[in-house]
């Protein structure tokens, strides 16, 4: 999961609700710097077990570059409400939510869509369902062509197996114990997370609807390869990742970018969450791509 370096909101960022035809969603809405030439709006979609806060470290450099940035909690995710039914979190439902969010943001110039990890699959589904007209570009960040790698499937399956029989607090404590047990150095693992971050990760977990986690976990383990479909959509595309990725091999992301005829960026020193691990470099790569997409390059 992405781990922000801080939770304090910059002065130009407001935590608010985005009202859409499919309901109200919690967002962080970051206004562009007044001195920068306008670059449009970027809609950022978080991944599995994540939230809008995953993108906090990206907001300052992106807004300094002239972009309005809206990071969203999907339905049932952290501060966005959601039903207690797995069917409500089918990928088609989440994609329809994303289309509605994009419609609510329309009219403010170019709209760039970015999905991280699971969010990339949802963004892909939205583009395939609605066509390219709503967006100026699509970025798939650390998000693969199909299901997650076998090692990640094992951990994801644990959630599917245990969440229906546990409350969220018990599940959290069980997972943290497993993480500590499997860490190379349990002492370092226990001391490596600041108290404020541990409290936030805990609060986010227990606030997320369990059916959302179960449904999206199943999606991650069964997602079909839809790259050929996406390749036919006339929309500038970027595949961005770190040098190492536990969910999808980096070599497979290279191959996906080639199949999509997409731009490819690998952020040095980053792993599955370049947004949080190398935000300045990630923001620079995103802004360069977004600017080129506006010029039709």
TrEMBL record:
Keywords: Hydrolase. Gene3D superfamilies: alpha/beta hydrolase (3.40.50.1820). Pfam families: Abhydrolase_6. It comes from the Bacteria. GO terms for molecular function: hydrolase activity. Residues 43-285 form the AB hydrolase-1 domain. This is Alpha/beta fold hydrolase.
């Amino acid at each position: 999961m992405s781990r922000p370096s801080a939770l304090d909101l910059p002065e130009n960022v407001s935590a608010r609700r985005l009202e859409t035809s499919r309901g109200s969603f919690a967002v962080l809405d970051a206004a562009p710097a007044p001195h920068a030439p306008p670059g449009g709006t970027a809609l950022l979609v978080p991944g599995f077990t994540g939230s809008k806060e995953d993108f906090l470290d990206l907001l300052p450099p992106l807004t300094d570059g002239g972009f309005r940035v809206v990071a969203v909690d999907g339905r049932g995710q952290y501060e966005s409400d959601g039903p207690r039914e797995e069917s409500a979190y089918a990928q088609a439902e989440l994609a329809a939510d994303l289309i509605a969010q994009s419609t609510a943001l329309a009219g403010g110039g170019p709209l760039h869509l970015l999905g991280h990890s699971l969010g990339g699959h949802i963004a892909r589904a939205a583009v395939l369902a609605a066509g390219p007209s709503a967006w100026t570009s699509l970025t798939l960040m650390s998000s693969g062509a199909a299901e997650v790698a076998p090692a990640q499937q094992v951990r994801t399956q644990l959630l599917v197996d245990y969440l229906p029989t546990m409350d969220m607090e018990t599940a959290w404590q069980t997972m943290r114990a497993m993480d500590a047990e499997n860490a190379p150095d349990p002492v370092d693992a226990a001391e490596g997370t600041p108290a404020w971050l541990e409290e936030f990760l805990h609060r986010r977990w227990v606030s997320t609807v369990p059916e959302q986690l179960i449904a999206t976990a199943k999606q991650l383990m069964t997602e079909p390869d839809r790259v050929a479909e996406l390749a036919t959509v006339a929309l500038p595309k970027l595949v961005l990742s770190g040098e190492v990725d536990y969910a999808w091999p980096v070599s497979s992301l290279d191959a996906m970018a080639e199949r999509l005829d997409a731009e490819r960026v690998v952020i040095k020193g980053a792993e599955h969450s370049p947004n949080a691990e190398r935000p300045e470099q990630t923001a620079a790569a995103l802004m360069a791509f977004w600017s080129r997409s506006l010029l039709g390059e």
